[in-house]
Design goal:
The protein is an alpha/beta fold and 656 residues long. The protein is built from 25 helices and 18 strands.
Amino acid sequence: MKSIWKENEAKKFKGNLLKLRVYTSQLLGKNEDLVMHGGGNTSVKINEKNIFGEKEDILYVKGSGWDLGTIEAAGFAPVKLKALQQLADLDSLTDVEMVKYQRMAMTDPAAPNPSVEAILHAIIPYTFVDHTHADAVVTVTNTPGGKERIEEIYGEKILIIPYVMPGFILAKEIYNMTKGIDWDKLDGMILMNHGVFTFHNDPKVSYEKMIAIVSKSEGYLKKQSATPIKGTSGRKINTLHIADIRKQVSEIWGKPVLTRTDDSSESVAFSNLPDVKKIVNRGPLTPDHIIQTKRTPVVVTNNFEKDLSDYVKDYLDYFDKNNTGEQTLLDQAPRWAIVPGSGSLSFGPTAKNLTIIEDINRHTKKAIYQAEKLGGWKPLGKADLFEMEYWSLEQAKLKKAGSSKPMEGKIALVTGAASGIGKACVESLVAAGAVVGAIDIDPSIRTTFKKKEILGIQCDVTSEKQLRITIEKIVAQFGGIDMIISSAGIFPKSTRIENMETKLWEKSLEINVSSHQKLIQLCVPYLKLGFDPSVVIIGSKNVAAPGPGAAAYSVAKAGLAQLGRVAALELGENGIRVNTIHPNAVYDTAIWTDEVLKTRAKHYKLTVKEYKTNNVLKVEVTSKDVADLAVSMLGKTFSKITGAQVPIDGGNDRVI
C-alpha cells in the first residue's frame, strides 16, 4: 500500500484544519482496501471561537451517512470536546442516550449525527484521528491465533484492543486501557476483528502511519504465501436460472430485488473451493458489513428451492438462539449467493445497494481465501455478529432510509432509448425507482446515460441474435425483466403505394412490427418470472387515422397494434399485461428540427406554436408526456387493464 499524499495539494489547505481533515479523509476513502461504502471515520480537534467570542475545543467528526471517499466539510459534525470527554467518564451509557447527548453537545444542529465512535475520537489526545477497516489487518485478526500474529507483526508499537461492540462500550474499554499510558510510544491501535486507529497532530503523519500499518499486514500475508486467489474460467450461469433465483429471493425478502452476476475469474475460482459452503458459513469480514450482507451467503445447488429453505431455517435458528426478547425479526433473505463453478450473485433493492453488496463480497472473498492460507477463516462468533446486526443504532440507519419508490427493485427494458420517446421513458422509469436496460441501434446509447440504474446497449432490434445477447446482458446485470417499453421504430419517407419500393415496405415491416414480435417472444420466459410483468407498445395515431403516402408506416403500426392485442390475449393467463399507446404530433424528437417545424407550419399556414398545438385541447404533447403515461401503464394504476389501445394526442378529431 502506497501513500497518495500530494504536498502541492495539501498546501492549498495550509492553516485550515477542517479542509486538511477533508483532504486526508478522502485519501483514505479512495482506497477500498481501507474503507468501503460509509465505513471508517475520521476527526479533527479545532480550538475556535463560539458566538460569545469564547474559545472552546470542538471535535469535528465524520457524520453518519457520509462516505470518506466523497466527504466534504459539511459531512463533519462539530461536537464540544469537553462534553464528549465527560461522557467517557460515565460508568454506563445506553446507545440511545449516547446519540442524544452527543447531539446535545453539537454546535450546529443542522449537521449530521456524529459517528458512534465520537467519544473514542475525543479521548485520543491528538488533533487528527483516522479509523479504517483495513482488509489486510482484519484478515490477519480473523484467523486462529490472530492476536499473536498481530503482536508478531507490530510488537509494542501497537495497542491491541479485544473485540467489543462499537460506540460507548468500545470507547469506555479503551478509556480504561489507556489511563496513564504514554500515547507517544504508540503508532496506532488495532481493534480485533474490527479495524485500525492512527493519530497525530500532523495529518500527513497520521495518514501515513495508517498506510505503514496496513502495509505491514499486507507484507505478512505475502510472506506467509497468503496471496490473493488466482482466477480461473467457469461455466456461465444460465440467465433464466438467475431470474428464477431472483424471483425466489425476492419472495423471501417480501419485495422485488435486483440480482447481479459476478462471473469474474477470481469469483469463479473462489466458488470452486472444495469446502466453500463450510467456509462462507462462518461470517463476514467485519461486523460492520453484516447490515449489508447478513451473516452468510446462500450456496446454490441443483435444488435452489431447498437451498433457500435451508438458509431461512438456519437464519431463524440463529435469531431464536440469540434473541433476548427485545429484537424484532428482520427478513430472512440472503444478500448474496455462491454458485459453485460459476461465481457469485448479489441481491439488493437498488442499483446503489447492489454495488455496495457486490463490492463488500469481492473483498470478503479475497480475505477468506487469504485467511484460509493462514490456518483458517475465523471471524467473530454468531452472538457478536447478532448483536451488531440487531444493534439499535444499525437498525435506526435502516429506518432512516425512508420509503421506497414505487418501482424500486423492478427491471425494465426499453428499445429506441437513445432519443425521443424512448429516452424519456428511460428517464421516467428511473425516476420511479426502476433500473433499465436501454437499447438502441445508435452507438451513442453506450454513453447517453451515466447512472448505475441504466445499462446502455447498442443493439439492432431486427437481429434475433443481437436481441438474445442483449437480453442476457440485462439479466446478468440486474437479474431479470419485469417491464418492457417497446418503442423502437422508423418513419419511412412519404411514398404512395403505386411508387412503393419493396425494400422500403419490408424495412418498415421488419422494424415497426417484426422486431417487436421478436423482442416479446424472447422476453416472455423472463416476464413469466417477473413481478407484475407488463409490456407497453408505442404505436401511432396512424392506426386509427392513416394518411396518404404513409402506407408502409401505417400498415406496420396497424400490425403492431394487432400484435399487442393478441399478445394480451395469449399472455394474460401468466399475469402479463400488454397495452398500447398511440401518440401523435410529438415534436421534441430528433427528426423534428426547427427548420422542419417551420416548414410544416408554413405549409398549413400556422405558426410553429399553433402547429404544435393543433389538436382539440390545444396543448403540446411531449416525449415526457408519453413516457409518463407509459410508466403509469406499467404500474399499479393499470394493474387490472390489458389489451388497451390508448391515444395520447391532445384529442385528434380524425381519431375521435
